[in-house]
Amino acid sequence: MGIYFNPTNESFTKDRNYEIYVDKTELITYLNKVICTPRNCLSVSHARRFGKSHAAGMIDAYYSLGCDSSNLFDNTKIAANADYKKYMNKYNVIHLDISSFWDDFKDNLVEKIKEYIIDDFKKSFNDEIDYSKKFSVILMSVYQKTTIPFVIIIDEWDCVIRNSDDKELVHSYLQFLHSLFKSEESKAFLALGYITGILPIKKIKDESALNNFREYTMLKSKPITKYYGFTEEEVKELCKKYDMDFDSVKAWYNGYLIDGVHMYNPNSVTQAMIDQDCDSYWRNTSSFSSINTFITMNYAGLKDDIMTMLAGGKVRVNPYTFQNDFSTIASKDDALTALIHLGYLGYDLDRKKAFIPNYEVATAFESALQTGEWNEIAKAISTCDELLDETIDGNAQRVAELIEQAHDTYTSVLKYNDENSLSCVLTMAYFTAPGYYNIVREMPAGKGFADFAFIPRSNAGFRPAMIVELKYNQSAETAIKQIKEKKYHGALSGYSDKILLVGINYDMDGSDKKHHTCVIEEWRNS
Known about the structure:
The strands form 4 sheets. Strands 2-3-4-1-5 form a 5-stranded parallel β-sheet. Strands 12-13-14-15-16 form a 5-stranded mixed β-sheet, with helices on both faces. By secondary structure, the protein is α/β, with parallel strands linked by helices. It starts with 9 loop residues before the first helix and ends with a strand. It folds into 3 domains: about 10-225, Rossmann fold (3-Layer(aba) Sandwich), CATH 3.40.50; about 230-370, no CATH class; about 385-525, no CATH class. It is built from 21 helices and 16 strands.
């Protein structure tokens, strides 16, 4: 029993005892299928706070000889598997968090890792093993002495690759990994290799330390997709238990589409349940500087694509040119792919398109833009709360002025000559509204489709429901008339006693002068 060699089940015990625990033990069922097989090496690269470390602690608890976890896994999903105790607490386990070593031992990282593991070995074997030999031989000696193979878990394995430009250090580190996972000795002593990181494995010339790993990423992670992050069904159950409005939670945290499965950031959902409040917990755990780094790169079309996604659209991305290295970004596709791996963008594999996954991430972009180089965009977004308030207060003239300002800001990147483009600008103009409203574009209502329906969320306070109809080269009055004639507002009668009917028109005369008008009327259920 040690810190790095045959750790206890303390980490997983804390997870099991926490107020919110979502059972992901079926991951162990999958690992039991590949352990001691040619497919026994897995690399999981997901965004931060997606449950990678939780899984690592669970793997410790299940396989490590340093503990007895027979009671800890009672009443979990894996307990229903007839063979679930077959592998339990029967392996020598080594568990490393590379980031903790990196913080303290950048210059002699590999030697310090070996030193700490050997110190743990000495607690179990004293001087019965020759520790002067190369590291893979030391592991082989432990295996020969115990006849028990190793499960090796490395958290944040890519920390060195992401943070060091020292080629000698990187080479030394990869050689160390080679001794664990690819050496001749490891063919005998390795039962399972499990590594986690943010980035997929970088292919480094003349290095083959990790080319035997099967990779699971934010792009594709079948068949273990549902074991990282929270699924929609899991979030629904939590919302029932904690009396939270599911639609609000969905708008804030849904959107990571991995292998067709909608995944939620577990850290944010958990915090929302505990605090009984939907908020941007993401910004407390991730650096906004990474957004600025990539969205301000001067690649053709990048700014247009970012604006399209901020306006609710999707953009085509080729993620396979990316070299799995933040320091070698060479194109628009590389920049967008980096944001996908960091969790700032979602990715639709079927359509090969990227998008901003949810409102929480949208607020991260909003904050990043305010500290970056997109001053005009940031200034326009800062007026969104005012626009929403002025709309609710019925100040039609001020609403028209603010939409005019939004148009002037976004016109260079959003083509603006029809109602569809006007819809994109309206989405940007009401950028912060999804925090209070479920906004539905082209909502079936009455005798047609309303351009925008603003349905109040449970946290919306006394904000009314709203129908927004858009017109191009007609009049705002015409938009209001259409709402009434086609009874669009009837579809919202169950959401609010007070419904605002908002008509917005954009006129362009022969001199290309831009001009918006707005009419706002109040309708109440009788």
